[in-house]
Predict the 3D structure of the following.
Amino acid sequence: MKKLALALSLLLAFAATTALAAEDGKALYAKCAGCHGADGSKTAMSKSLKGQSSEAIVKAMQGYKAKTFGGSKKATMENLASRMNDAEFKALGDYISKL
Ligand code: HEC
């Protein structure tokens, strides 16, 4: 019975984290919408973010942070990504992949 209670509380904690991450992604994306569009489909600045997988977004953000990814306009993204962490990239990726 104790084990079941532990398993349940772990499950609840996990569910809470997942829900939080989705909300965080939405809040974080407010910083991105100006350039990438509210639904990620604006292509004046870059390739469309809409339609990309969470993994692709995380990889791109990590690449900008590490300065190993990007095109001719990467300075903006390098600057932004350098002030963010992996948990934020993941939350953003999860949010953007569902736009
Ligand atoms: C000031 C405008 C601006 C803002 C704000 C901005 N971006 Fe960008 N983003 C760009 C530009 C310009 C590029 C293309 C850079 C290059 O040449 O590599 C880009 C590229 C990207 C790419 C790579 C797309 C691809 O597949 O090539 C991703 C992912 C991305 N941005 C995510 C974000 C996220 C997430 C945020 C918010 C945290 C954000 N951007 C905020 C201008 C912006």
